């Protein structure tokens, strides 16, 4: 839902932004970066957060993720491109993102246990909580992501036909 930006959380409430960024750093130090990109992107897809989808796609590509896996992420259950560990984490991030509907099911939680220890499960849950907070801030703020690739793109020359 594009529109005029409504607010700038970092400018108006820098302490909120600072604390969210500190939590972001803690989560990033505890989880594999490639997995974290997938989780952030999947939650952002579910929430329809264009800002976060753009940003996390750029970050994932920068960190070596493949275009194919990012393109297939919305249909990850039907794709063989994800490991069992990634599948367990993606199922959990969907449960956390859609918690009002799912209740964070025992099935998804138990699916984490063969792949993650208790500490890692807490950090996965925190990552889900945090990206959902960022999605809600970005969507309600109406901010738009400006890709660094867009800034470097060359203008397309005009072509006259006829």
TrEMBL record:
Gene3D superfamilies named among the record's database cross-references: AhpD-like
Stored InterPro entries: AhpD-like, AhpD_core, CMD-like
The Carboxymuconolactone decarboxylase-like domain, residue ranges: 14-95
Pfam families, per database record: CMD (PF02627)
Protein name, entry field: Carboxymuconolactone decarboxylase family protein
Organism whose genome encodes this protein: Sphingomonas alba
